[in-house]
From TrEMBL:
Catalytic activity: L-arginyl-[protein] + 2 S-adenosyl-L-methionine = N(omega),N(omega)'-dimethyl-L-arginyl-[protein] + 2 S-adenosyl-L-homocysteine + 2 H(+)
The protein's name: Protein arginine methyltransferase NDUFAF7
One Pfam family per UniProt: Methyltransf_28
Listed GO CC annotations: mitochondrion
Subcellular location: Mitochondrion
InterPro entries referenced in this protein's UniProt entry, alphabetically: NDUFAF7, NDUFAF7_sf, SAM-dependent_MTases_sf
The entry's keywords: Methyltransferase, Mitochondrion, Transferase, Transit peptide
EC number(s) from the headed UniProt entry: 2.1.1.320
Gene name linked to the record: Ndufaf7
Source organism of this protein record: Eubucco bourcierii (red-headed barbet)
Biological process, per Gene Ontology: methylation; mitochondrial respiratory chain complex I assembly
Function (record text): Arginine methyltransferase involved in the assembly or stability of mitochondrial NADH:ubiquinone oxidoreductase complex (complex I). Acts by mediating symmetric dimethylation of 'Arg-118' of NDUFS2 after it assembles into the complex I, stabilizing the early intermediate complex.
Length: 442
């Protein structure tokens, strides 16, 4: 499916969006590296949490994350988050247009490999500012002749009113219809290239149908439970008010086992500290069930590990590590995705590929060839330097190249040769899955 004609057509893109200069600090842990801050007055979110803790006692880390990130009034994401150079963190699509273009090619490649269905929905979970979808739509437009007989629609799952407005501005120029009566979406519009776009607050609101799903830096922001092995057995890590320091939070251990301890710790667990994200398990199950029933595929790109890491809960503010318990609601909170947990939650409903490192996936997708095309079309030194800087950010193992992983969900039949049921001895190759197989340009 990843034939040269498709590759050449997509990478014939001449237009570039302007690439701002970005600097990002990638850290694998928060302990000891957080920026020092002067003592400031407690934030509205901190005051809210302190009142809650006085009334209820310690809360789980998951409850703390949920409040700090998505509280309707003061949550970090509901207020708009801080994506970009002027914010708290920078994402791959904001660093280089190449990233989004290659993701767009991945979906086209899978659409071809699956027999070019007459319609598909592209569903993105947590679309940020809309930059990634915008780059994907540009690829779809470049390959419009290929998609001419396919009914394509975009479906964005976004809880932040502020971010949804930003997405609408980038993707449509701002012309949207709020609360359309004819759908479960809270907003709808048409992209600058003529493709319908719908916004939802929950993935369950997205209509069923053949769909490609995208989750880029989505799962790492979902609430986690943290557990510590002790001499008395597993105990859950909780957040409480510090009785000795006014307006300050601290971590404590539950005095006994909690319901989460009983349900989320596996008997065979060997680590001494474990983070579990049950919400991620629920969402990945929903994606797997939809793919199993309606067809399609899902691509997950995120910080992560395969069941090996322990304490990865950290915060980011102004592109620097930030104490996760300081000034809640003003910093991004994140934890590495446990891909082994996601795989276990799918329970074989779909096939899975990965996780593989971002630099391997992008190399397999042809990032080197795309970079050369852009460099050849660049006529000024500053643009060329920016392209090379962005490439280094995405691919360097010490920057984003090894921090991020790609993981895919595919129907089982996608990885089986069609003749295998009737001719088990058949040696004909299965169509390779772009990004997860080495790119060969014949």
């Amino acid at each position: 499916p990843f034939c040269r004609s498709l590759f050449t057509a997509a990478f014939g893109l001449a237009g570039r969006r302007r690439l701002p200069c970005h600097h990002a600090l990638i850290s694998s842990g928060a302990g000891g590296q957080a920026e020092t801050e002067k003592t400031t007055a407690p934030t509205a979110m901190l005051r809210h949490l302190l009142l809650k803790l006085r009334a209820t006692g310690p809360v789980t880390v998951a409850e703390y994350m949920r409040e700090a990130l998505t509280n309707p009034g003061q949550g970090y994401y509901t207020r708009g988050g801080g994506i970009g150079e002027s914010g708290d963190f920078v994402t791959s699509p904001e660093i280089s247009q190449i990233f989004g273009e290659l993701i767009g090619i991945w979906y086209i490649s899978e659409w071809i490999a699956m027999g070019k269905p007459k319609a598909f929905q592209l569903v993105e979970l947590g679309p940020g500012r809309g930059t990634l979808t915008d780059d994907i739509l540009r690829v779809f437009n470049q390959l419009a002749s290929l998609l001419s007989k396919c009914d394509v629609s975009i479906h964005l799952v976004e809880v932040s009113p502020k971010l949804s407005k930003t997405q609408a501005l980038i993707l449509t120029g701002g012309k949207v219809q709020s609360n359309p009566e004819d759908s479960s979406a809270y907003m709808k519009a048409v992209s600058k290239t003529g493709i319908p776009i719908f916004w939802y607050r929950d993935i369950q609101d997205v209509p069923p149908g053949y769909s490609f799903y995208l989750a880029h830096e989505f799962f790492d922001a979902l609430p986690i439970h943290k557990f510590q092995r002790t001499e008395k057995g597993w105990r859950e890590v909780l957040v409480d008010a510090d009785p000795e320091v006014p307006d300050q939070l601290r971590f404590v251990l539950s005095p006994s086992s909690t319901p989460a301890t009983e349900n989320f710790i596996q008997p065979e667990e060997r680590r001494d500290h474990v983070e579990v994200c049950p919400e991620a398990g629920v969402i990945i199950q929903r994606l797997a069930c939809r793919i199993e029933k309606d067809g399609g595929a899902a691509l997950v790109a995120d910080y992560g590990h395969d069941g090996t890491k322990m304490d990865t809960f950290r915060g980011f503010r102004n592109h620097k590590p930030h104490d996760v318990l300081k000034a809640p609601g003003t910093a991004d909170l994140t934890a590495d995705v446990d891909f082994s947990y996601l795989r276990k939650m799918i329970q074989g409903r779909t096939a899975t590929l990965g996780p593989i490192k971002q630099r391997e996936f992008l190399k397999n997708m042809g990032i080197d060839l795309r970079l050369q095309v852009l460099l050849q079309n660049s006529h000024d030194t500053q643009t060329r330097e920016q392209l090379l800087h962005s490439y280094d950010m995405l691919m360097n193992p010490e920057k984003m190249g090894d921090c991020f992983n790609f993981f895919a969900l595919l129907p089982h039949h996608r990885l089986l040769h069609p003749d295998k049921k009737h001719k088990p001895e058949s040696k004909a190759p299965v169509a390779p899955v772009a990004g997860f197989d080495e790119l060969l340009l014949k």
